[in-house]
Amino acid sequence: xxxxxxxxxxxxxxxxxxxxxxxxxxxxxxxxxxEELALEKNQHHFGIFDNEKLVGxxxxxxxxxxxxxxxxxxxxxxxxxxxxxxxxxxxSENWAKQQGFTKIYCHARENALNFYxxxxxxxxxxxxxxxxxxxxxxxxxx
Length: 142
What we know:
Blueprint: E1 2-6, H1 11-25, H2 34-38, E2 44-50, E3 53-62, E4 67-75, H3 84-98, E5 103-109, H4 113-118, E6 122-130, E7 133-141
Parallel strand pairs: 4-5
Antiparallel strand pairs: 1-2, 2-3, 3-4, 5-7, 6-7
């Protein structure tokens, strides 16, 4: 597997949008709007590839005070539960550290809590609803 930083509006970043929609949105009956996608221009897009095939990705968003928000983490269905997501998250964490970020957080669906706990994320606060699903805020300090 190979993780790459994806330039906004590149072919691979557009492929990642389709994969995110397939894995995260369509099961909820949702689709991206052009306005939503335009807001991602200044965000950091990462893709993980099996040879040349994009199989997963995530986005990091600059927040205040050297904090990054990780969002839209997804791995294609047939590649899940093979350690690929862990490789992707660790790569993006290392990139964030190199950029001077001191903390990363995400809003994780309840079914992803164990994945993040294995990566030393800590639950902060109570459960909340996002896109109609139970989520938790998880944080990790560097």
